[in-house]
Amino acid sequence: xxxxxxxxxxxxxxxxxxxxxxxxxxxxxxxxxxxxxxxxxxxxxxxxxxxxxxxxxxxxxxxxxxxxxxxxxxxxxxxxxxxxxxxxxxxxxxxxxxxxxxxxxxxxxxxxxxxxxxxxxxxxxxxxxxxxxxxxxxxx
Length: 140
Ligand code: 5GP
Ligand code: ZN
Known about the structure:
Strand order of the largest sheet: 1-2-3-5-4
Distance between the termini: 29 Å
CATH architecture: 2-Layer Sandwich
Shape: globular
Strand content: 15-25%
Low-confidence stretches: none
Structural class: alpha+beta
CATH topology: HIT family, subunit A
Bound molecules: guanosine-5'-monophosphate, zinc ion
Largest sheet: 5 strands, antiparallel
Mean pLDDT: 95
CATH superfamily: HIT-like
Radius of gyration: 17 Å
Number of domains: 1
Number of helices: 3
Number of strands: 5
């Protein structure tokens, strides 16, 4: 993955503000943070997104996320931490190397639009039909 910016960060060809690393993952500060402490966790092996990431790396990402948000709670005393991950251009994924956003939240921070959508009851028939479609397509 010659062109991938996050692979370059893993290789040390582009600098980053590292907060954590282990055999499988690297975590560093987002260069355009929504809030101070906005951190990205990435697998060291290139995978585009959740469609592709190997299970072993996905597990490592989530274990690292738990470690890091506990550290954020101690170091930054946030009121919460939002964990976000986008898949595909239609979901606004910009960097095509899997990354898990950790965004510490504090009182008075601007709302994150994705966490504040209006709750309106849906059409139950459409919900049920869609659930069946997804369930039927699930592979083990
Ligand atoms: P996405 O929309 O794909 O989930 O978000 C990509 C994120 O990567 C953005 O929040 C963006 O600020 C961050 N980003 C893009 N290029 C770089 C970079 O070179 N270094 C760092 N640290 N973050 C980056
Ligand atoms: Zn990559």
